[in-house]
Write a structure and sequence with these properties.
The protein is mostly helical and 580 residues long. 79% of the residues lie in helices and 0% in strands. It folds into 2 domains: 308 residues, no CATH class; 220 residues, Methane Monooxygenase Hydroxylase, Chain G, domain 1 (Up-down Bundle), CATH 1.20.58.
């Protein structure tokens, strides 16, 4: 290897360039992330508008991968239709060529000393006086990223200038252009950035390390390599539409790449009509990059719908049945449907209890004597995130079934009963949301070096375990009055545990066992934990008790609150009199 080739300067330049791209992308998303998401979600109603949105957002964000992953997220959420998503990603291929134009215009025509350094100097100094997360802070990061982009490019240029003078291109002529196609694809897949690959190609072309045809082949390869990020984003158990969009992006880039590679000579001559590639090869390659991506959009545009429908057949919809009772019962038989709805909500409660037990790492076998339906149907243990997702879907199916029941001819008593059932379902779902929100706090309490927090974590586990044992025993009671009394007793016990916890926490504060931030966390966790327990009792109340017992239960709670308020008032008056 020629000693004038500084490999470390080249790699340092590449690293600085990639870091600049990261800063640019990150700061632009922080400054206008919501605006770009709004463009993707709202301004994509037609295919042409969808393509235009893809071009615009990718051109500004300078990352087709970031836009593609954003599109996948919107498809997964059902906000963006599949055909329009495909159109957006086609447009993003055109938008990503903006980087090549910026580098071609500025990177090789302007002195880095007079261009990049002022950006870095002003923005770097200003960053020290900006509040992290503020708009000025992110604007400074944007300018620093812009400066690093061209500083890195300059390092790459300098590293190969001397080497290019003694480099003999003829050694690669026998390999053919396909080798450079593969190199471009490999570099992009490796770095997850087609912009970085384009910068390397333009640098090599500017230093005469490669010919224009070689550079064109590498650019085509870079376009194919950029599909790796999107394919990774669409893998796994994701939404079916995400897989379709990911594969469509791969097909679009592959077919466009093959057509461009086969017709590379024709495209190069077409570029030569507008730009003299001999004297201005860098600008010519930027135009080539844009030309063949526009060509791909023109070819695919009439077939977007056909492509989407074809891939839908390749990825058929496989619906996972989460309900145990509802699918078996037609809504037209109202009595049977109401009974099935009641049992399904009971199933929902059990799955929620399983989720909560696993958050606190309690062996569910100590509570349930059977494997619950979600996992028995799959024959394997679900991850917490998957279990939570299934619970949400089950809740949605319960509500949809309830809506269908509402459309039937119902008597007033049946209407009230169904309202109580769906209210029970909502209470149960709100209960699990509380637990999900404090799961991270439980982990902190368990791993904390503070022994008091460790003890409270054990206390929460014990409280939940005892509650679920008590609730499970209610199902064995046959007498309605016994169920009512047991539920009321459980609820009162929950309130007593809440007061006991607060009293213990106050004592720990007085004895300096916990710090201020730990106090806030403990109180918040206890409040949400207690509320979650209450909501599960309320859910069972609406599932198991008669309307008369429900009313009596509510009156008992109201009476209890009134008595406690009077007791608190008397205690305050006694305290005031003692003070006097």
């Amino acid at each position: 290897m020629n000693e004038t080739f500084d490999i470390w300067r080249l790699l340092a330049g590449l690293g600085i360039f990639l870091f600049g791209m990261h800063l640019l992308e990150d700061s632009v998303k922080a400054l206008s992330g919501r605006a770009f998401r709004r463009v993707i979600s709202q301004y994509t109603k037609g295919r042409l508008r969808a393509i235009g949105s893809g071009v615009f957002v990718t051109g500004v964000v300078q990352s087709s991968s970031a836009v593609s992953l954003m599109v996948l997220a919107f498809v997964g959420a059902g906000i963006l239709s599949m055909e329009n998503a495909i159109a957006v990603m086609m447009g993003s291929n055109i938008g990503t060529t903006f980087t090549a134009w910026v580098v071609a215009f500025l990177g090789f025509k302007v002195s880095i000393d007079s261009f990049a350094f002022p950006f870095l100097a002003v923005a770097g100094i200003s960053l020290a006086f900006s509040e992290p997360g503020s708009k000025p802070f992110n604007l400074c990061r944007f300018l620093i990223g812009f400066g690093f982009l061209f500083l890195g490019l300059n390092y790459m240029k300098v590293s190969v200038e001397g080497f290019s003078q003694s480099f003999d291109l003829t050694v690669f002529k026998d390999y053919g252009l396909w080798l450079f196609l593969l190199v471009g694809a490999f570099l992009t897949a490796l770095m997850q950035s087609s912009s970085a690959t384009i910068a390397i190609i333009l640098t090599a072309l500017n230093s005469h390390l490669i010919t224009f045809d070689m550079g064109a082949a590498m650019v085509i390869g870079a376009n194919i390599g950029t599909t790796v990020t999107v394919m990774l984003g669409s893998l796994g158990k994701g939404v079916r539409a995400k897989k379709i969009v990911g594969v469509s992006h791969l097909l679009f880039n592959l077919v466009t790449g093959v057509i461009a590679f086969v017709g590379i000579g024709l495209l190069v001559r077409l570029v030569g009509v507008f730009i003299d590639t001999a004297s201005n090869s860098v600008m010519g390659l930027a135009l080539f990059h844009t030309f063949f991506n526009i060509l791909g959009v023109i070819i695919f545009f009439p077939f977007i719908g056909l492509l989407g429908r074809g891939l839908m057949r390749v990825f058929p919809h496989r619906r996972t049945i989460l309900t145990v009772y509802l699918d078996r019962t037609p809504v037209e038989v109202v009595d049977a449907a109401a009974a099935s709805l009641t049992r399904e909500i009971g199933h929902l409660l059990e799955e929620c209890q399983l989720y909560n037990l696993r958050i606190l790492e309690i062996d569910e076998k100590q509570v349930f004597d059977h494997v619950l339906p979600f996992e028995s149907s799959l024959g394997k243990k679900l991850r917490l995130d998957d279990l939570y997702a299934n619970i949400k879907l089950l809740h949605a199916e319960i509500f949809a079934y309830y809506a269908k029941l509402q459309a039937q001819k119902l008597e007033e008593a049946e209407v009230h009963k169904l309202e109580r059932l769906v209210f029970a379902s909502r209470n149960i779902m709100n209960s699990i949301k509380n637990f999900k929100g404090i799961s991270g706090d439980f982990e902190e309490f368990d791993s904390s070096e503070n022994s008091y927090l460790n003890r409270q974590y054990s206390s929460f586990r014990s409280r939940l375990f005892d509650l679920y044992h008590e609730l499970g025993n209610i199902g064995d009671l046959e007498n309605e009055e016994d169920k009512y009394r047991r539920l009321l007793k459980i609820f009162i016990h929950i309130e007593e545990e809440d007061k006991k916890f607060i009293a213990e926490t106050m004592k720990a504060v007085a004895e300096s066992e916990i710090e201020e931030m730990e106090i806030a966390s403990l109180l918040l966790v206890n409040r949400l934990f207690t509320q979650s327990c209450r909501l599960q009792v309320f859910g069972l109340k609406d599932l198991l008790l008669s309307p008369e017992q429900i009313a009596e239960f509510d009156r008992a709670l109201d009476m209890k609150e009134m008595i406690e308020e009077e007791q608190a008032k008397d205690a305050k008056e006694n305290h005031d009199e003692a003070g006097e």
